[in-house]
Each structure stands twice: as structure tokens, then as C-alpha cells.
Amino acid sequence: MPNVTVSPYFNLTMFVNIGPYRYPALAACLLLYVFIVCANWTVALTVCSEKTLHEPMYIFVAGLSFNALYGSTSFFPRFLLDLASDAHLISRAACFTQIYFIYTYAANEMTTLCVMAYDRYLAVCHPLRYHTRMTAKKALTLVGLAWLFPVFILTTVIYLSATLPLCGDEIQKVFCANWNVVKLSCVPTVVNNVVGMFMTISTVFLPLAFVLYTYTRIINVSWRRSDKFKGRVFQSCMPHMVSFVVYSVAIFCDIALSRYNVEEMNSFVAIILSLEFVVIPPLLNPVLYGLKLTDIRRHIFKML
After folding, report:
1. pLDDT at position 1, please?
2. 43-69: pLDDT as tens digits
3. CB under 8 A, 24+ apart: contacts of 212-220
4. 10-20 burial by CB neighbour count: b if 16+ within 10 A, else e?
5. pLDDT (tens digit, 9 = 90+) per residue, 121-148?
6. Are 196 and 259 in contact (CB under 8 A)?
7. For residue 288, how many other CB atoms are within 10 A of its CB?
8. Between 22-49 and 267-292, two packed helices, what is the crossing angle to 10 degrees?
């Protein structure tokens, strides 16, 4: 019979002792977090306060900014505390809470990018019916569904993980991750694996397939049109394409890393790969949309 661990804490083992570089690293991460919060809050506040920006495309951009605030706040405060500490223990309740917040952020990002792709598909492929099929009210409804769908799935996933009897307390991450906790289980985890696979397919691979389908249709429509039309389509879709590609690569790195033995990798490389999806999109999106979309950029400068 395996020895069931009753420790109320998990130990995050991927933190590297960087000696005198700890405090410069802490200061740099704190500044990064402050920039992410300020940049995303500026974009979200601009869209919410300017009535001329109450259009579907800008509503989706605001949704990405709010999700970035949600995700970065779920990660950075605890990460900064661990950087400043010699011990990297986290209580079970805090660990599962962090898993829930970070995973809902990750799923919300992909589903929001999915509905943004649908918006661009309607704008390019059905321009005459766009304003009747995609209104501000419908955009808000889609953003709400993009948030609620992952919440219901992840509530089930986290509940199943939280009720497992565990035979260890070491998590090879700098933050709590569901699969790393499930691997500590003393009993078979068939149900957890099936539900986790359903979650991954429904919140990652199905949105990914839908986005690829919509852009295939957009490319087919644009290919037969004039260069001027292609230029307008490219300018309209480019921020979303960049956001989607960057996030897809980042989330793939984390999924692949969770199935790989990180002890065989360089610690710094493993940490960077595991943090990409929670750092790069919240950092990139406000810069990308705030500077590339003329209306948002103009109102931001006006507000500042």
C-alpha cells in the first residue's frame, strides 16, 4: 500500500539558487508585472471609457486585456514572494487556487482569440452582413461565453485533482500545475486523465482548429481580390494573427514541458519555457493592439 502524503504543503522545486542576482531578478520581475498591469489597464480603460470604441473588435481587445490582468495577478504576486524567499512551500489550498486561476486564464485566452477569429471571418467573408451578425451586444455575449465555458470545465478538473490521495509533495515547477499534482497520486488517475484530455481538446485544440479554418477562408477570399483589399485585410488581421501564433507557441511549450522530465533539461530553459504563456501574451498584446490599432492609439495618447 503506497504511503499517502498528508503534508498540507507542496514544495516548488524548480526555483534555482541565483545567489546575489536574486534581488535584481526580483526588481526586474516586479517592474515587468507593473508594466503589464499598467499597459493592459490603459487599453481596457480606454475601450470602456470611449463610446466610439464600443465596437466588437475593440470589445474583444478589452477582453484580452482584462484576461491579462487576471492571469498576471494570479501568477506574479506569488512568484515574487517565492523569489524573495529561501523556502518555496505553498499550501494545498493556495496551490489549487493558483491552478484554477492560471488555467482559467490560459483557457480564456484561447477561447477569446477563437471568437476574435470569428469576428475577422465575418468582417472579411461576409462584410455586407457583418453589422447585423456581429453587434456590440453579441460581442459581449461571446466574450462572456468564452469566459464561462472554461470555468465550468476547470471546476470539474480541479475538484477531481484536489480529492486525490497523494504520495509526494514536490512539484517540478515555479507555480502549481494540475498535471504535476496528478502525477503525485497514489491511485490510478484514469478519470482525471480523461477529463483533462477533454479540457485540453475543448479549450486548446478545437479553438486552434477553428482559427485555422477561419483564416483559411479569409486567405481564400482575399486571394481573388485586389492588392488594396489584401492590404486592408492584412492590416486588420495582423494583430490577431501575431497574438494567436505567439500564444499557441507559448501554450504548446508548457504542454510539452509538462510531459517531459525537466530534470534532464537546463533549469533556466525549463523555467523560461514554463513561463512563456503567462508572461509574453500579457506583455505583448497591449503593445500590439495599443500601437497597431489607430483608434485605440489615438485615444490612449489623448487620455495620457
Report:
1. 45
2. 999 999 888 888 999 999 999 999 999
3. 214/117, 214/118, 214/120, 214/121, 215/117, 215/241, 217/121, 217/125, 218/120, 218/121, 218/124, 218/125
4. bebebbeeeee
5. 998 888 888 888 899 999 999 999 999 9
6. no
7. 20
8. 30
The whole-angstrom separation of Cα 28 and Cα 145 is 36
CA distances (Å), origin 39, targets 170, 269, 279: 35, 27, 13
Please spell the DSSP secondary structure of 243-274, one letter per residue.
HHHHHHHHHHHHHHHHTS-GGGS-HHHHHHHH
Beta strands in the chain (DSSP E): 9-12, 89-91, 170-171
- Rounded Cα distance, 63 and 76, in Å: 20
Report the SS3 class of residue 56.
Answer: helix
Task: Reduce the DSSP state of residue 54 to 3 states and report it.
Answer: coil
Helices (runs of H) and strands (runs of E) counted in the chain:
11, 3
Instruction: Give, for 147, the enclosing helix (H) or strand (E).
Output: helix 136-162
Please indicate whether residue 253 or residue 46 has the higher confidence score (pLDDT): 46
